[in-house]
Amino acid sequence: MEQNKAIYLYAAKDLRTEVRKLAAPADDEVQVAIRSVTLCGSDIHYYQHYRNGSIEVREPLCLGHESAGELVALGSQASTINPDLRIGDTVALECGVPCDECDLCASMRYNICPNLRFCSSGSKFPHYRGVLQEKVNHPAQWVHKLPSELSPTVGALLEPLAVAFHAGCTDIIMVDIDEGRLQFALENGLAQVTYCVKPKGATTLEEKLDLARETAHKIGQLKWKDGTAVGQVQRVFECTGTGACLHASIYATKSGGHVVLVGVGMPNHTLPITDISAREVSLIPTWRYANDYPIAIHTAVASATGEKINSVKLPSLAKLVTHHHKGLDAIHTCL
After folding, report:
1. Three-state secondary structure string covering 148-202
2. Residue 148 per-residue DSSP state
3. Dihedral, CA atoms, 94, 98, 99, 100, nearest 10 degrees?
4. What pLDDT tens digit does each residue of the chain (335 aa) get?
């Protein structure tokens, strides 16, 4: 056993630095010295509310899952499980650990395995540890060796990038309440068309639905670069989990189209069922990722080297990181 420093959440906005014992990696595990962690919206929800949607924290929780680090130890079977791994490698952690025994795992849909444990999530008890630690032990099957072109910082971003690939985004119209984020997306090739929503403080359900219809109508009047109107779209990716955005997504989708539910927010929603049914708008849930890390790594390398994919030069992923904080204790000032 060795001493290992980690950050634990004991209640809303109550983060504590602790030193706990860390064992050597099990036979099927590797040990990773964490070099970079990027914060997810779920980390913020847990920090602010001690819950994430309907998931309540039931014991002190170590936060963080978007991560990369240096491989410092191998379990006795780790090289057999993942032959590419060597001490000193930079690796990204795929932070969902499924059972590998159920029908869903057998069909490669391990992201919805009922027994899956996910780093920094309160969904299972005891909670599965997060990565805001000096070192973690992790199953060798679920670490990915990074090419030399990728820094640990970009390696941590592979997790949200895998979420995007699993959802299936292509040409993007980006809608937000923050003009700065929209401008950043345009300047860096992350969206083709943008629209900034001005919150109006709707309170009743009817006011909220009216605002959603108005927002969808204004989005439809936007123009692509060739001058054609956006109109209603075939597929909307709802990435916030809020009721207002979900309603606007439904109204912005053409008949027979799809709303892909990416964001996790409120545990329950009121939906305009008549409009959904009459226009056969499909609501498609998507949960994290499965088998998406390899393409995320390939895309990140192309972004870093300037290689084109499908004749398109990719934007820089590194620019998505706006602030850097050094050391575990910095978490107390950056949340």
Report:
1. CCCCHHHHHHHHHHHHHHHHCCCCCEEEECCHHHHHHHHHCCCCCEEEECCCCCC
2. T
3. -70
4. 899 999 999 999 999 999 999 999 999 999 999 999 999 989 999 999 999 888 999 999 999 999 999 999 999 999 999 999 999 999 999 999 999 999 999 999 999 999 999 999 999 999 999 999 999 999 999 999 999 999 999 999 999 999 988 987 667 889 998 999 999 888 888 888 999 988 777 778 788 888 888 888 888 888 888 888 888 888 999 998 888 899 999 999 999 999 999 988 777 888 999 999 999 999 999 999 999 999 999 999 999 998 888 777 888 888 889 889 999 988 888 87
- Beta-carbon contacts of 44 under 8 Å, excluding residues fewer than 6 positions away, are 335
* Ranges of each domain in the chain: 2-160+321-334, 197-285
**Structure-token match 């990435």, residue found:** 239
Crossing angle of the two packed helices 205-220 and 243-252, in degrees rounded to 10:
40
pTM for the whole structure: 0.85
**CATH for the stretch 197-285:** 3.40.50.720
Query: Residues 6 or more apart from 212 whose CB is under 8 A from it?
Result: 244, 247, 248, 250, 251
Distance CA 277, CA 275 (A): 6
Tokens of 115: 């027994």
CATH class of 2-160+321-334: alpha beta
- Phi, psi values for residue 167, rounded to 5°: -75, -35
Reading the block at residue 88, the tokens are: 């000193």
| C-alpha to C-alpha distances, 136 to 69, 119, 295, nearest whole angstrom | 10, 11, 25
Structure tokens at 7: 């950050």
Local structure of residue 141 (DSSP, 8 states): G
Contact 313, 306 (CB under 8 A): yes
